[in-house]
Amino acid sequence: MRFDFKTRYEQDLRLFPHRTDLLGNGALLLCMLAAPLVLPQYFLGELTFLLVYGVAAIGLMLLSGFAGLISLGHAAFMGIGAYAHAILLEAGLPFALSLPLAGLIAGAIGMLLGIPALRMTGLYLAIATLAFSIIVEHVIGKWEGLTQGHGGMQVPEASLAGFDMGDIESFYYTALAILCLVVVGTANLLRSATGRALIALRDSEVAAQALGVNLPYAKAVAFSLSAGITGIAGGLFAHRIGWLEPGSFNVVLSLQLLMMVVVGGLGSLKGALLGVAFLGVLDPAIAILKDYLPSAIGGAAGLQLFLFGLVLVLFVLFEPLGLYGRWLKIKAYFDHFPMYRRATFQRTKTYMQSERYR
Amino acid sequence: MSLLAVENLAIRFGGVRAVDGVSFAVEPGQVYTIIGPNGAGKTTVFNLISRLFDSDNGTVTFDGRDITRERPHRIVRHGIARTFQNLELFDHATVLQNLLLGRHRHRTVKLLDEILFLPRVTRSEVAHREKAEEVIEFLELEAHRDSPVASLPYGVRKVVELGRALCAEPKLLLLDEPASGLNPEETENLAFWIDDMRSDLGLTILMVEHDLTLVNEVSEQVLVMNQGQALAEGSPAEVQKDPAVIAAYLGTDE
Amino acid sequence: MLDFLQQSLNGFATGCIYGLVALGFVLIYKASEIVNFAQGDMLMLGAFVGWTALDVLGFGYWPGLLFTILACAAIGFLLDRQVMRPIIGQPQFAGIMLTIGLAFTIRGGVIMIWGPEERSFHTPFSNKTTAFGSLAVDDVSLSIVAGTLVLCAVLFIFFRRSRLGVAMQAASQNQLAAYLMAIPVKTVNSLVWGLSAGVAAAAGMLLAPSLLVDTNLWIVVLKGFGAAILGGFGSIPGAVVGGMIIGVSEQLVGVYLDPESKGIAAYVILLAVLLVWPQGLFGGAERKRV
Fold first, then answer.
1. From the CB of residue A146, how many other CB atoms can be counted at a distance below 10 Å?
2. With B239 labelled, which of A35, A58, B201, C20 sits at a CA distance of 20 to 30 A?
3. A307 in any annotated domain
4. Is residue A348 domain-resident?
């Protein structure tokens, strides 16, 4: 069992309230910093992908996990960010300016979509974002003057403070630094009033409003921040893949992002990163698994999709809190040993969310 | 001057006149109760005051200002906080976070400050926390401070919702059936708290309540509603003798 | 003018398919407030099962159609009973993610069983046309329109006249009350899933001859959303009409405006409608009581 002795309220406000948190996160960061020294190029490249997805997953988590607004079209914001970044670089802007601008552009478009989307309820919003992302994909393909259309676009080379972004090691550190900044910024937001307001609107809009939360404003903030962060992820993604095509940012990418967030655990930043790591491991794991299965199953083309779907189904059914929820349960078990109650995490059931009048 | 004046308030849902020309006034420092059979339009009056619905007719004046068409999230800034009949808590947050949300109207820092978590954010968070702790002490919620709301028993959740409204430091508190679902002991506590809120915190309270024992104990003015209309107004003893009220509750022999 | 009519008619036939997909959504949504993102994959599954029945098992067209509908309905029933049931009463997000997971699983499974290659689908209507005056309409389109009308009529009679249909309506309006009236709500919900899967399978069988049987058939689910939203997500005729509107307008956009934009016409309409009417064209306000 762990006992907390706190004497000042500031202690509760820290990013890492406990010394163990600080140690754990510090150790993780050290490992990440040391990774390029040990890992071969290929794995480092894959790890960089995960860092980029991590940024995008944090963006989506802010919107869907905390504010409870489901987006099925976040790949569109990644696409907007990626193209904006590439086009700005081409126009001669330095990396340090073009990436934040790409984030701002994605954020602004996010807000434009967010404002009318505010009046929609969960399901309609989900479908509206889906439609939006398909339209964005199409517009990127059609606007050939700017994006070179379906032919694809070469991402210009860039450098930051003398480091070449084409070099996998420098790019790895850049992505890591940006991920850290995004995580800290989001965590800061979540431990202050606006973050609480977002969580409030997920659980009860009426009550949030009655307590003075300006619903349209809060939702617009959630939308534009989320889109902006995802846009930055898109900019990084552009460098990692080097060649942009409209089809790179399709519905499947949106669903993958959503899956990371759900599998990791809705409503926690650590969950977003865990989800990314899990899916990052799942892919090679399936490749290895294929060798051990009878060839009729292992060789079949749909196996990967099938297993992805199955994992998602199993998580939603048996661990709706995701990997992070499972981690919390294990932690609680040891923290409260021997007084752990299973019921602590029992889900509350509600029957028929909305009442219908028609 | 009355703190809250409702005049000729009306709303219809489809063909139903849910509230049909209701007027009343709540004086500062009063505990004012609306009673009436189910479906009388009591909660709808609350929802109209807190601007969840647009009224079709009538005015609501609070503290000398017309708030009939105020935007919903600004109501609490005028000094009106409310609770809900079936609890509208933030279930996945802790009790403390719920109470801190009650402080939302007193937010002073900007979004960018929050993202950078500047020292002034820490200062304002500590100030909010201190206020929330006062409420925790007042309502004896210390044991539940860090529990997720969803894991708490119903009676405690009701208290948390009351605490959340108190954190907003309102002038007028709207309590929608505060005693429903509470056991006699909890109701007794509630009566004490209502008294204390009025005398120590200087609050004015407007509530909807079915528990007449509680109403008799804490309330000085009662409005009886039936089918969207005001039936009678007066002290608890007066209205309970009113033949029209008795007829509405028990029916007549005609 | 003639060309316009011809094009509208083609669009109308595609629109019927969208309408059937939307109808499947609406059935399930009304029963359990879950949006079945796997509806398109059910349709694809239907097309593959239908192909197997016709080309591998050697059924005639009509017995094959019946077999496919029943087989898929059984799958839908089992999906609800075994997979969806624990999710009832959970937040909407859970339902969306679960059905997306199911969609992946079904699609992956279909690719594993049948392989990713396309195959063509032969029916008694293939490669024939019927002339109406100077309008020549291919029989496949006619079969889609006729099939849709027949399905709608059957459903209409089913919901109006049969005990089960009325029970389904009751359960969708108020689960608790239906439960108290001794309607086995859970079983009824599973049957609704079966019904919806059957409709999807029929739509798959109708659609397959005009395209190839291939795993990309699931994409109609996206158009189906447009149709369902136009129709307000709560109304069965609304869904079918919504589908027809989308089918016709996308055909006309493709022919008269820009062939490349044909594919996204549905989404533009959908987004425009949602921006103006956030609850859909025929949708009523669903407000939580506090």
1. 14
2. B201
3. no
4. no
Domain for residue B97, yes or no? yes
CA-nearest residue to B80 within chain A is A210
- Name the neighbours of C, counting chains with at least 3 Cβ pairs within 8 A: A, B
- How far is residue A31 CA from its own chain's centroid? 21
Domain assignment present for A192? yes
> How far does the CA of residue B68 sit from the closest CA of chain A (Å)?
15
Q: Does C45 touch chain A (CB under 8 A)?
A: no
d(CA C38, CA C85): 16
Shared-domain flag, residues B13 and B48: yes
Please tell me which chains touch A, using 3 or more CB pairs under 8 Å as the contact test.
B, C
Residues of B in contact with C289 (CB under 8 A): 86
User: Is B114 in Cβ contact with A194 (below 8 Å)?
Assistant: yes
The number of folded domains in chain B is 2
User: Do A306 and C109 make contact, defined as CB atoms within 8 angstroms?
Assistant: yes
Across residues C64-90, what is the average pLDDT?
86
Q: What does the alpha-carbon distance between residue A263 and residue B248 come to, in Å, rounded to a whole number?
A: 55
Q: Which of B102, B117, B150 sits opposite A192 (nearest CB)?
A: B117
Q: Is C272 on the interface with A (CB under 8 A)?
A: no
Residue A178 counted as domain residue: yes
pLDDT of A1 strictly over 70: no
B146 lies in the same domain as B210: no
Distance CA B145, CA C134 (A): 79
Q: How far C176 CA sits from the closest chain A CA (Å)?
A: 9
The answer to the question of residue B45 being in a domain is yes
B254 and B176, same domain (yes or no): yes
In this structure, how many other beta carbons lie within 10 angstroms of the beta carbon of residue B176? Answer: 25
pLDDT value, residue A352: 40
Residues B204 and B223 both lie in one domain: yes
Residues B98 and B152 in one domain: yes
Q: CB–CB of A306 and C104 under 8 A?
A: yes
User: What sign does the CA torsion over C116, C119, C125, C131 have?
Assistant: positive
Decide if B84 is inside a domain: no
Cα-to-chain-centroid distance, residue A338: 36
At CB < 8 Å, which residues of chain C contact B?
Answer: 289-290
Q: Is the pLDDT of residue B234 over 50?
A: yes
Q: How far is B162 from chain A (nearest CA, A)?
A: 12
The domain of B222 spans 1-79+170-254
* Pair B102, B152 in one domain: yes
Assess whether B205 and B250 both reside in one domain: yes
Q: Are residue B55 and residue B106 in the same domain, yes or no? A: no
Q: Which domains does chain C have, with CATH numbers?
A: 2-116+135-276 (1.10.3470)
Residue A235, domain extent: 27-250
Domain termination site, one of B102, B132, B167: B167
**How many CB contacts within 8 angstroms connect chain A with chain B?**
112
Asked if B194 and B219 count as a contact pair (C-beta separation under 8 A), the reply is no
Interface mutation target, options A64, A182, A191, A192, chain B, most CBs of B under 10 Å: A192
As a whole number, the mean pLDDT across chain B is 87
Each residue of A172-224: pLDDT tens digit? 888 999 999 999 999 989 888 888 888 888 888 888 888 888 888 888 889 99
Tell if the CB–CB gap between B104 and A10 is shorter than 8 Å: no
Query: Nearest CA to CA, how far is A119 from chain C (Å)?
Result: 6
Which residues of chain B have a CB within 8 Å of the CB of A191?
Answer: 117, 125
Domain end marker among B167, B202, B232: B167
Query: Looking at beta carbons, which pairs linking C59-62 to residues 24 or more positions away fall under 8 Å?
Result: C61/C123, C61/C124
The answer to whether the CB of C43 falls within 8 A of the CB of C21 is yes
At residue A2 the predicted structure's pLDDT band, cuts being 50, 70 and 90, is: low
**Which residue of chain A is at minimal alpha-carbon distance from B111?**
A194
Quote the number of domains for chain A: 1
Spatial contact of A62 and A268, defined as CB atoms under 8 Å apart: no
- Within-domain flag for B235: yes
Q: Is C259 near chain A, with CB under 8 Å? A: no
